[in-house]
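Extended Data, panel c. Modelled sequence:
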Amino acid sequence: MAEVKKAAAKVVAKAAPVKEAVKAEEVKTEAKVAPEAEVKETSKAAAKTPAKKAAVKKATVKRAAKKEAAEKKTPGRKPAVKKEEVKATVNFQFNGKSYTPEDLLKSCKDVWKYDLNGKEEDFKSVELYVKPEENTTYYVINGDVTGSFFI
């Protein structure tokens, strides 16, 4: 039992310096804050003489500039100026007929859906080749399905 008390006394003795270390850290943090307050008080007292007023004013301006610089956020990249996009319309005209790319794409989707029994979700990409002299549009759907339709 005496051994247990001695061991407990050692543990308590070791714990005491930790509390002192924590208090020392608190004092250090308070010391960091305190110089600013002292500078303000000293600057007010030193401001009584004209030569010291100028020195105090310069120091105050420098501190204010540092604070502003720290508070200012550095601006990121400026947004790119958008150029006006050219609005284009393409029409295929031949033999008295006129087609837009949207018309040809719609016809191709209809061929995919109704003639080839494909699902709309499976229609991922398409390449269209228009041959006006044959009144035909050739297609390659999803890179592997080929065919043509009359226009």
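Residues 29-34 have pLDDT under 50 and may be disordered. This feature is highlighted in the accompanying rendering.
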